[in-house]
Design a protein that fits this description.
With 188 residues, this protein is mostly helical. The chain is 79% helix and 0% strand. Helix 1 runs antiparallel to helix 2 and helix 4 packs antiparallel against helix 5.
Amino acid sequence: MRYAFCLITFFVAAMLLQTSLFPALIPPMLQPDIGLLMGLCALAFGVREFGLIAIFTMGIQADLFGSARFGLLTLCYLLAAGIILWAAWRELTRGDLLAAWIGGVAATALAHGLYIGIGRVCGYDVHWGQAFAKVLAWILASVVWGLPVAWLCGKWMYGLNLMSTPVRERWAAEARLAAARRGKVMRG
């Protein structure tokens, strides 16, 4: 039940941010692909199966609310996640915010690069200048927004107790250390 609640929360948050809040408040150059960043954080902090389901769910969300070809973004999200897991599985799944941030930037570049390449093969009319500029804008936006999204998603998953065991232990040890530095004692 907690997993479903987390996925629904990520889906609704990504949908609201991507379709209404970011276009109204953020310049187009800094509007990230928030669903991909959230999905990759779930992959980095949670168990692998939940992370892949989150990537798939965020791909469906992106396809429903912004794709020219339904299913292509979902496929590209999953391919990018697979490539990142293959290349840096140990580094990504340690529970480190920096690894989740770098993974989000890499996933953004990979997913949208694959979208352009596969879309071009499937007959999607690609204007190379516009496509390159849009991918660069998404990469810049993921650099800017990736770390706050990783922190918020990590806190949300920690609160729901959805992190993998080693990641949860690491975050709990860091919380105890931070509390000890502030002069408070935390148990558990």
